[in-house]
Design a protein that fits this description.
It is built from three helices and eleven strands, in the order βββαβαββββαβββ. The protein has 187 residues and is of the alpha+beta class.
Length: 187
């Protein structure tokens, strides 16, 4: 039977099990091996080092492909803190899909939400007294490189904090940063 791990990836952790250190030298950075001691599981998709939240790991290649491959259009929900006062025109643009350098995005579900900080971040997001920020819930069915960050920047609101909250029916709810649990991989 396939194994499926739900992991709440902390900020600054690489989505791989080894690290040779940053280019140009320096100590190795935190990896999945610092949190998960289960041989044979691999990430189904990725989260950037500066992103947080739900990462799924499995030992089943077919399940990994169904989760990660954009052709399966698995919904991914993010809680996103952006710079500036997010208004209706920006939300409407995200809902229509925005033009990126590698082509237009599919339409997204986008709604402004009250600040939901699910947990404190270390280091905290920079605070600027003269620049407001906003939170939104953004749901996409693609998975391009740094897509959410590029989408919010394209509508004039750079991302300050990015937390993946849900993939399909799986959620990070109830998991503190660095915690994981194994679940049944029913799809």
């Amino acid at each position: 039977m396939a194994r499926l791990i739900l992991f709440n990836k902390p900020y600054g952790v690489l989505c791989q099990f080894t690290d040779e250190g940053p280019a140009g030298g320096g100590p190795p950075r935190p990896t999945l091996a610092d949190f998960i001691d289960m041989p044979g599981v691999y990430p189904a998709g990725r989260l950037d080092r500066d992103s947080e939240g739900l990462l799924l790991l499995t030992d089943d290649g077919a399940l990994q492909a169904r989760i990660a491959n954009p052709r399966f259009k698995m919904r991914k929900e993010y809680l996103v803190q952006v710079e500036g006062d997010l208004g209706d025109p920006a939300l409407a643009a995200l809902r229509r899909g925005v033009q990126l350098k590698d082509g237009p995005t599919r339409p997204a579900e986008a709604e402004r939400i009250l600040a939901p900080p699910p947990w404190p971040r270390d280091p905290p997001v920079r605070y600027r007294k003269t620049v407001p920020d906003s939170w939104l819930r953004l749901t996409i069915t693609e998975g391009r490189n740094r897509q959410v960050r590029r989408m919010t920047a394209a509508v004039g609101h750079p991302t300050l904090r990015l937390v993946r909250w849900r993939i399909g029916d799986w959620t990070v709810e109830g998991l503190a940063p660095g915690e994981w649990r194994e679940v049944a991989p029913a799809m």
